[in-house]
Hints:
Blueprint: E1 2-7, E2 26-31, E3 37-41, H1 54-57, E4 65-68, H2 73-81, E5 85-88, H3 94-102
Parallel strand pairs: 1-4, 4-5
Antiparallel strand pairs: 1-2, 2-3
Amino acid sequence: MRICIHTDQDRGLGSLPYAHFGSAPLFILHDTETGETRIINNNDQHHSHGACHPLRGLGGQAVDAVSVGGIGGRAIDRLNEMGIRVYRSYVGNAKENLEHLKSNVLMELTPSDACGHYGHGCGN
């Protein structure tokens, strides 16, 4: 499984998740099968509000899931349409989030869980 966690740090799996997917400076890409971890720049970081293009942000990198602190409803829809599942980040670092995802502890998000909807704020 290829997992993406957004961050503003380049500390590998010790990086902390950033508060919002679309404006995160960096993405951690981790392959659970090979153990490979890479950090890439968010290629869509400076988009206008509500105009996030997740694939552009990921630079076309294929992922199966993303772990986010906050994300907009349209971005969840776009990711889901591409077969990518979206999960709420745990407050710990990337390694802890991966462990929680593997243990089915992280909550899968739907557009109704998005930032600003039904009283939900953004971030962890």
